[in-house]
Amino acid sequence: MSFIFCAARFGRAARQKPLVSLCVPVYGAEGLIGRFFESVLQQTDSPPVETIVVNDGSPGTKDLGRIVKTYTKRFKERALPLVFLEHGKNLGTLEARRTAVIAASGEYIAFADPDDELPSSALRILYETSSASSADIVHGAGTVCGMEGEPDARVAAFAQRAQNVYDGVLTGDEILRTYIVEHSYSSFVWGKLFKTDLVQKAYGEIPFTYCTMAEDMLLYFFIALYAGTYVGIRDAVYNYRINTGISSRRKIADLAAWQKVCSASSVFTIILSYLDEHPDVGSDIREAVKALGRAYYADNLKQLEVCVDPSLKAEAKALLGEWWGMEIVP
Fold first, then answer.
1. pLDDT, position 329
2. Phi and psi (nearest 5°) for 108?
3. Rg (Cα) of the chain, in Å, rounded?
4. pLDDT tens for residues 103-133?
5. CA 100 distance to own-chain centroid
6. Which pTM value belongs to this model?
7. Around Cβ 117, how many Cβ atoms within 10 Å?
8. Alpha-carbon span 235 to 167, nearest angstrom
């Protein structure tokens, strides 16, 4: 795509406020973010977009800063703002995204992880669908790539989730209910385009939370709660690379890493507290949330058995009980 062609379609990008804010939290993926940046630069017929990178206290801060500096020059040549923000310490994915959302100046927000990529037409498809429908949420499909040695069954299972899109239009209460009760589409926040004010409203319901697991579910619950219109499309708009991020099935050799796994419990504590205060949302919603909480707890138990170093298992089991408590897991 040439800059001249993009300008003819969307106006002079250098002088135009971004229409889409692409929010990218980074922790420990410095070696992969260049590939993501390349996918942003290769977007065809894209609306004016700003990319907001939040360094969430990453151990590779120096390398990340150097990479961002290099790409800032290339983005500037294409009139694409690249904003770099930093946390002094690791606050978790949920809060890194909050920082990006606060800084966003676009009418729409898209989320991405730095170890993934965007297909070349992703932003155009999402934006044109949202613009034509005035939808609060546009949801496209994702494709999944596994790392070498990753079991084919796990890649296939994740691919099924990434492609779980409701093919059509949902409105009002059915947006949340169709997701959380009927499981008719996924809660991943990547692969979707949201109106910015909707995401900001959702974050207004979420207290500061250290969370690196199930954080998509927490954020999307409140987005879906307040959304007026959802449009699902079958187009592939995201390329997800399994087993490169924090949620990967890796050996856990310290309790700090284990607490990140247990942080999924915070998601259900917050949602259930909200539902306690708003019983009008529906008992079926509450029961569905509790069922998901039990499933996450069961998965944590499996990770305790398979991933945690044997010398840490006793302490890890005690921490698991402290995090989850008895409200969700009787």
1. 65
2. -125, 155
3. 20
4. 999 999 999 999 999 999 999 999 999 999 9
5. 12
6. 0.90
7. 23
8. 10
In 3-state terms, what secondary structure has residue 160?
A: helix
Map tokens 């079926």 to a residue: 284
Using CA atoms, how far apart are residues 281 and 261, in angstroms rounded to an integer?
29
Distance in angstroms (rounded) separating the CA atoms of residues 5 and 39: 18
Q: How far apart are CA 296 and CA 307, in angstroms?
A: 15
Alpha-carbon torsion (173, 177, 180, 183), positive or negative: negative
Which helix (H) or strand (E) segment holds residue 261: the answer is helix 255-262
CA–CA dist 281, 283 (Å, integer): 7
Cβ contacts of 173 within 8 Å, gap of 6 or more:
282
Which one-letter amino acid corresponds to residue 219?
L
Let me know: does 266 contact 146? Beta carbons within 8 Å: no
Query: Looking at the predicted structure, is the pLDDT value of residue 313 above 50?
Result: yes
CB crowding 64-76: b at 16 or more within 10 Å, else e:
beebbeebbeebe
- What are residue 231's DSSP bridge partners? 138, 169
Per the structure block, which two tokens stand in for 244? Answer: 């490169």
Amino acid at 97: R
User: H or E element: which one contains 315?
Assistant: helix 313-324
Positions of E strands within 71-187: 82-87, 108-111, 137-145, 169-171
What is the 8-class DSSP label of residue 234? E
Regarding beta strands 108-111 and 137-145, do their DSSP bridges make them parallel or antiparallel, or are they unpaired?
Answer: unpaired
User: Dihedral, CA atoms, 218, 220, 222, 228, nearest 10 degrees?
Assistant: -170
Contact by Cβ (8 Å): 30, 60 = yes
Give the dihedral of Cα atoms 37, 38, 42, 46; nearest 10 deg.
0
Eight-state DSSP code of residue 78: T
Amino acid letter for position 290: K
Residue with tokens 């995201």: 238
